[in-house]
Recover the amino acids of this structure.
């Protein structure tokens, strides 16, 4: 059971993320308690717990791999914020996934690209970038999926163009190691006239850098 004092500390507006992150890194009991708070009903509690866990798992991912299944369960949560939390924490642990457990959840994870919530789709692409930079064997599989973004997401065109900005960011990170550079180049070229200013700007930059 999580102590009320920790809950009260976690939900403070002026939460000191670094302080509590350091605490859970060095104290297993506190670590377990904060992981449990991810399932709390109060948004300030579970979201601030996420801030702490995200920071701590970036610093010491090896301490959090034991919670892999708890984080995976969040992918199926009806709350889109918790789906986002699950994706981010899993991505933070990818360096510790020596068993390649991610392979078993790949389909569930990437389904979030066409989530009912657009921000969850953005979260998915951003975290896939982190994942493929470590799991180079998944680069081409992910690239092929993202090349089809126009046909697989249900969003309005303005949102699709915003999502392409994150896709371009992923392509930028893996271009040299990807197989199908021709299709990636075509995708980049197609974004040069995007209605999204930041997507257009990045596409122009990549066109100059990679072509």
């Amino acid at each position: 059971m999580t102590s009320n004092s920790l809950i009260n500390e976690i939900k403070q507006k002026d939460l000191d993320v670094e302080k509590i992150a350091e605490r859970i890194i060095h104290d297993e009991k506190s670590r377990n308690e904060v992981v449990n708070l991810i399932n709390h009903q109060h948004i300030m509690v579970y979201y601030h717990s996420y801030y702490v866990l995200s920071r701590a798992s970036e610093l010491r991912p090896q301490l959090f791999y034991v919670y892999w299944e708890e984080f995976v369960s969040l992918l199926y949560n009806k709350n889109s914020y918790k789906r986002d939390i699950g994706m981010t924490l899993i991505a933070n642990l990818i360096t510790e996934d020596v068993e390649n457990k991610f392979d078993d959840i790949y389909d569930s994870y990437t389904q979030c690209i066409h989530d009912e919530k657009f921000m969850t789709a953005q979260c998915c692409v951003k975290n896939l970038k982190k994942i493929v930079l470590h799991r180079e064997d998944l680069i081409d599989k992910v690239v092929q999926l993202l090349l089809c973004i126009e046909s697989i997401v249900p969003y309005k065109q303005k949102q699709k163009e915003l999502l392409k900005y994150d896709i371009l960011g992923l392509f930028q990170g893996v271009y040299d190691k990807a197989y199908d550079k021709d299709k990636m180049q075509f995708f980049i070229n197609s974004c040069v006239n995007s209605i999204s200013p930041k997507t257009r700007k990045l596409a122009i930059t990549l066109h100059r850098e990679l072509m």
